[in-house]
Amino acid sequence: MKWRLQSLVNLVVKLGGFLFPSKPNPQQLKIYAETLGKLHMEGYGLVIVTGGGETSRNYIKALRELGGSEMVCDEAGIAASRLNARLLATALGDKAFPAIPTSLEELRAYYRQGFIVVMGGLTPGHSTAAVGALAAEAVNADLYIIATDVDGIYSEDPKVKPDAQKFEEISTGKLLEMALKGGVWAGGYQLDPLAVKIIERAGITAYFLDGRNPENLLKASLGGRVGTRIVPSRG
Fold this sequence. Notes:
42% of the residues lie in helices and 17% in strands. The protein is an alpha/beta fold. It has one domain (9-231): 3-Layer(aba) Sandwich (Carbamate kinase). The strands form two sheets. The protein has a seven-stranded mixed sheet with strand order 3-2-1-4-8-9-5, sandwiched between helices. A two-stranded antiparallel sheet has the order 6-7. A hairpin with a 2-residue loop joins strand 6 (185-186) and strand 7 (189-190). Helix 6 (172-180) packs antiparallel against helix 7 (193-202). The longest helix has 23 residues, at 70-92. The radius of gyration is 17 Å and the shape is globular.
């Protein structure tokens, strides 16, 4: 299927650890870069936020065993996410801005140049899901996609309760209520309250979906039914 866009759309995509195993997979990165490149050619403005993946988790585990503080662990996670950003930016070639932003100010400056901007974490204590939401707010994005290795947001952990409800659509108000109780489940992934709050205040529609199939990214970018659609609450 050929996906087409009628007008310019600003899109931010947060890519989870499924794309960044401890041993990088260049072929998988090339496939994703092709999908992102097609969207860019169709007129999408793109910011990609990469998670730390297995490398981040391995370093954080080792640092904790060595007595490292949570601040040190956060800094290691940010460093790993920026290494992953470098991998994807390289796979994108001349479609990507050559530098990896380390602040929202740099992000806005690079984004204005018309390239795909790839970035990792920014600040200790902020998940990359929250960073993606901040990036979406910073570039006035029309859509924010959180791509993970699970197919949506559930009422409970579906690995523990197979009859858990998967939400096709959920408001940020309901999602925040669940997040504050530690009960936003997408497989083993929990969406943090800060990310939800930023999505809500920015008024950005978001999707939480399985990114292992790049086709899902294309569907969501056109407003199709895929994963869980997150709609900002009003008032």
